[in-house]
């Protein structure tokens, strides 16, 4: 047991160091690697959002779909408070920025903490009526909340603060990839600690059997409220990070589609598994990029060398054209859902033990195959 | 230890329990027997605060608990083993036990060992998901989980429900053992025969009222009880 723990610790340290090394390589020439950097940053931000959503859906069993709304709040707070003061008149040329707000500029970290605090407060307020609802009704109510937020931020009356439908732009970007990755990692680690604490056990108890949970002395409402508040706070942070990543905050980003996209990552990775959500975020974000080659039109001659540019060779390959990427992506999703109907990781975490056992099994079956073939 | 006075419970206009009073002395096994719908489970559920009683008083060691929330009541030393076991099926036996101690801070290892010593079978299966246990084992887990809160009083709602007769015997052995290690037990049972054999004190509930009371042995001999609940006639 002790040896195994030591081995796992060493493996974890090595993995973290390798990741850092990779990031250093990317960072050393950020112009050349800009594409990879954007994918990694985006994935990390979505990972925070997905893990936070998993906290309420996967661990507490409350089907809340308010993520996009809280991300919207976070994005606007970050946007409004971090754009350079000298550019503000230019951005808010139509409404003019409110004078009390005009000269307030905060560092990114402070803004993100503010995002978390504000979103937590709002979540506590709306959680009070909304968390009395169950399953579908909760989903509808939170979805509605999310749209209301979007409408409020796009409202002319708040133009002096939010720039209404024009949104906030020219948000300063991340100073380096490490800023984004480290902030995301810290958020996720905090949530992992929460899930493994006695509060995490209470979340799971409510998810599995609320009658028994209540009889154990778990205060259902207060515990659900806690989970909702934490989820929303980190959704707010993810929204803030997303605004920095996109260098703008516009209400049209935070539609229901964003919530569904994050829900997709949670379900694909495995409901109730944090490592699953992270994996889901990277796979969904990454594969939408990797599949981009499907969006180009090819002629047969480009794919099969030596058939010449005339006749058959000059014809376009069928299906491959703009938008086909999403068709393939959807098909892949369906396959995953069919064959791994509890998500890629199930509700269990990915651990070194699991990985090593899996690898051993694979080796063994290969060996057996080789032996049986030899016979 | 537990003193119930004039407890009445209403369910949507229907009186489930009408003005019942009984005591559970410290260190004893007390049982409430009665037919389906007599109000036994409602009584337990209102003692632990899951159902709000209409009127009456619930005192634990002199402290009034009427109107307190469930978590306060659990903190004061009462736990409930719910009817139908209600273990957390996807979590391991060990995790189930830990949830039982949710309201307590501090090291749980000693208490877990204590529960394992009462239920050695749970120790063998500590890493198994609770949903894969047999019915009897799940009942043991439900009792063990309730013990993890270190209760003064443990209430059990129909622990023999849906179990094979041989397992039922085992469960009643366990109830005796739990009592022997110093926990007061309030037991609700339809299996009157078994319940009266282990009980120090017993109450019969009919239509929300206590109609007969006495020691377990007295009630076993009582003609009315024999006729209505034990299925034997003299």
UniProtKB/TrEMBL annotation, chain A:
Top-level taxonomic group: Bacteria
Primary localisation category: membrane
InterPro entries, sorted: ABC_transp_permease, LivM-like
Alphabetically ordered keywords of this record: Cell membrane, Membrane, Transmembrane, Transmembrane helix
UniProt GO MF annotations: branched-chain amino acid transmembrane transporter activity
Subcellular location field: Cell membrane
Record protein name field: Branched-chain amino acid transport system permease protein
UniProtKB/TrEMBL annotation, chain B:
GO molecular function list: ATP binding; ATP hydrolysis activity; branched-chain amino acid transmembrane transporter activity
Alphabetized SUPFAM superfamilies for the sequence: P-loop containing nucleoside triphosphate hydrolases
GO biological process: L-amino acid transport
Keywords of the record: Amino-acid transport, ATP-binding, Nucleotide-binding, Transport
CDD domains per UniProt: ABC_TM1139_LivF_branched (cd03224)
ABC transporter domain span: 2-232
A Pfam family hit: ABC_tran
Keyword Transport: yes
Family label: Belongs to the ABC transporter superfamily.
Protein name: Branched-chain amino acid transport system ATP-binding protein
UniProt source species: Pseudobutyrivibrio xylanivorans DSM 14809
UniProt lineage: Bacteria, Bacillati, Bacillota, Clostridia, Lachnospirales
């Amino acid at each position: 047991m002790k040896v195994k723990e030591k081995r796992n610790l060493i493996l974890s340290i090595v993995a973290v160091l390798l990741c850092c090394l990779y990031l250093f390589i990317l960072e050393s020439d950020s112009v050349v690697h800009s594409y990879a950097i954007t994918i990694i940053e985006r994935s990390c931000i979505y990972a925070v959002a997905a893990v936070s959503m998993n906290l309420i859906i996967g661990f507490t069993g409350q089907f809340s779909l308010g993520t996009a709304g809280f991300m919207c709040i976070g994005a606007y707070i970050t946007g409004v408070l971090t754009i350079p003061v000298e550019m503000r008149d230019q951005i808010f040329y139509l409404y003019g920025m409110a004078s009390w707000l005009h000269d307030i500029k905060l560092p990114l970290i402070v803004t993100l903490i503010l995002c978390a605090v504000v979103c937590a407060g709002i979540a506590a307020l709306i959680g009070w009526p909304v968390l009395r609802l169950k399953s579908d009704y909760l989903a509808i109510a939170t979805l509605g909340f999310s749209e209301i937020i979007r409408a409020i931020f796009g409202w002319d009356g708040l133009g002096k603060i939010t720039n209404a439908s024009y949104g906030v732009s020219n948000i300063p970007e991340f100073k380096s990839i490490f800023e984004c990755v480290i902030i995301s990692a810290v958020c996720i680690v905090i949530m992992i600690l929460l899930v493994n604490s006695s509060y995490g056990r209470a979340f799971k108890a409510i998810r599995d059997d609320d009658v028994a949970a209540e009889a154990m002395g778990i205060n259902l409402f207060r515990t659900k409220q806690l989970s909702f508040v934490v989820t929303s706070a980190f959704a707010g942070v993810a929204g803030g990070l997303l605004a920095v990543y996109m260098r703008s905050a516009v209400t049209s980003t935070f539609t229901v589609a964003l919530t569904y996209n994050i829900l997709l990552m949670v379900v694909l990775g495995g409901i109730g598994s944090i490592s699953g959500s992270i994996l889901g975020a990277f796979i969904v974000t990454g594969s939408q990029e990797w599949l981009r080659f499907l969006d180009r039109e090819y002629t047969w001659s480009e794919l099969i060398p030596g058939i010449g540019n005339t006749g058959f060779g000059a014809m376009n390959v069928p299906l491959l054209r703009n938008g086909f990427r999403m068709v393939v992506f959807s098909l892949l999703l369906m396959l995953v859902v069919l064959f791994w109907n509890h998500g890629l990781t199930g509700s269990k975490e990915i651990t070194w033990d699991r990985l090593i056992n899996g690898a051993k099994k694979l080796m063994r079956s290969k060996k057996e195959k080789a032996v049986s073939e030899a016979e | 230890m537990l003193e119930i006075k004039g407890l009445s419970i209403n369910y949507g206009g229907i009186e489930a329990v009408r003005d019942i009073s009984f005591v559970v002395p410290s260190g004893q096994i007390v049982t409430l027997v009665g037919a389906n719908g007599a109000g036994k489970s409602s009584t337990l559920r209102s003692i632990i605060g899951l159902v709000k009683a209409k009127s009456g008083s619930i005192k634990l060691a002199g402290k009034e608990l009427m109107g307190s929330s469930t978590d306060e009541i659990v903190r004061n030393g009462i736990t409930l083993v719910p009817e139908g076991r209600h273990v957390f099926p996807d979590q391991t036996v060990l995790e189930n036990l830990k949830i039982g101690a949710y309201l307590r801070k501090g090291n749980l290892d000693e208490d877990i060992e204590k529960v394992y010593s009462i239920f050695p079978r749970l120790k063998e299966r500590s890493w198994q998901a609770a949903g894969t246990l047999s019915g009897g084992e799940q009942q043991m887990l439900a009792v063990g989980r309730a013990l993890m809160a270190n209760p003064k009083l443990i209430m059990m709602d129909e622990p023999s429900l849906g179990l094979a007769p041989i397992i039922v015997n085992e469960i009643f052995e366990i109830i005796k053992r739990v009592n022997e290690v110093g926990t007061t037990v309030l037991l609700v049972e339809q299996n009157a025969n078994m319940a009266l054999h282990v009980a120090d004190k017993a109450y019969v509930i009919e239509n929300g009222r206590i109609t007969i009371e006495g020691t377990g042995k007295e009630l076993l001999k009582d003609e009315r009880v024999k006729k209505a609940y034990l299925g034997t006639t003299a």
